[in-house]
Design brief:
CATH class of chain A: Mainly Alpha
Number of domains of chain B: 1
Number of domains of chain A: 1
Low-confidence stretches of chain B: none
Largest interface: A-B, 31 and 29 residues
Largest sheet of chain A: none
Mean pLDDT of chain A: 91
Oligomer: heterodimer
CATH topology of chain A: 3 helical TM bundles of succinate and fumarate reductases
Shape of chain B: elongated
CATH superfamily of chain A: Fumarate reductase/succinate dehydrogenase, transmembrane subunit
CATH superfamily of chain B: Fumarate reductase/succinate dehydrogenase, transmembrane subunit
Structural class of chain B: mainly alpha
Number of strands of chain A: 0
Order of helices and strands of chain A: HHHHH
Radius of gyration of chain B: 21 Å
Radius of gyration of chain A: 21 Å
Strand content of chain B: under 5%
Helix content of chain A: over 70%
Distance between the termini of chain B: 76 Å
Helix content of chain B: over 70%
Number of helices of chain A: 5
Chain lengths: ~130, ~130
């Protein structure tokens, strides 16, 4: 172990931080798993919601989504879901798109898409829930 | 005299290579993930229409209840369950469990079968409520 210090070019600080050359360590992996874990109960809840409003009128569906408990859980599902899918699509892009320019463009579009989906869902749920 | 055929394992030849189940599932996990990704556009359409009013909501309801809409929704339900159980399978592997060849195949088969059953149950219940 002590011999290693003769060859290891990393500073003691970088070893302690353990963030590697990409400077963010395992955070992408960890957040992917964390949002995935959260998505299990939230997605089941979402399926329950869709089944509950299937075939209902506009007014009844509005009333269902406006319920604070339903709205809060739907918001959590949207937030955890769009973060999870942004991370997942990023991995697919980085794995399969090799041209540097098109890859960066795809990564930007991925972020914009996830942000738009998230914002549109959050705004709609809040508007319905606040009774606007 | 022909040399005795070697019994050593050969490296996989892509043209005759039988994909292991786990490899197929790894690819399908990415495909279902991508489908769920783009399918969120439908969720946005539904929620925004719901917030906009009766006219917009009638349009999205008409689409969702059309044959194409129902096909997409059933497919989306399956993709969600499939991706969910694929994810649970990865959680098990993340903990370093179930890496024996038999366990790997068993877990993979479970992760294929349960999502199909759950999709059928959800839609059997869902369609009976409508």
């Amino acid at each position: 172990m002590s011999n290693n210090s003769n060859h290891d070019m990393r500073t003691p600080l970088s070893k302690v931080r353990g963030l590697g050359s990409a400077k963010d360590g395992t955070s992408h992996f960890w957040r992917q798993r964390l949002t995935g874990l959260a998505n299990i109960p939230l997605a089941l809840f979402f399926i329950y919601c869709i089944a509950s409003v299937a075939g209902k009128s506009h007014a009844d569906t509005l009333a269902f989504v406006a319920n604070p408990i339903i709205a809060i859980l739907l918001l959590l599902f949207v937030l955890s879901g769009v973060y999870h899918m942004k991370l997942g699509m990023q991995v697919i892009i980085e794995d399969y798109i090799h041209g540097e320019k098109i890859k960066i463009l795809a990564l930007i579009l991925n972020l914009f898409f996830a942000a738009f989906i998230g914002m549109a869902c959050v705004f709609s749920i809040l508007k319905i829930s606040f009774g606007g | 005299m022909a040399p005795k055929k070697s019994q050593r394992p050969l490296s996989p030849h892509l043209s005759i290579y039988k994909f292991p189940l786990t490899m197929m599932l790894s690819i399908i996990h990415r495909i279902t993930g991508s489908a769920l990704y783009f399918g969120t556009a439908l969720l946005v359409w539904w929620l925004v229409a719901l917030a906009m009013g009766g006219q917009a909501f009638a349009t999205v309801t008409w689409f969702m209840q059309s044959p194409i809409g129902l096909f997409i929704l059933v497919g989306y339900t399956w993709a969600m369950f499939h991706h969910m159980f694929g994810g649970i399978k990865h959680f098990i592997w993340d903990f370093g469990k179930g890496f024996e060849l038999e366990s790997v195949d068993f877990v993979a088969k479970i992760a294929v079968i349960i999502p199909v059953i759950l999709t059928i149950i959800v839609w059997a219940v869902g369609l009976s409520l409508v």
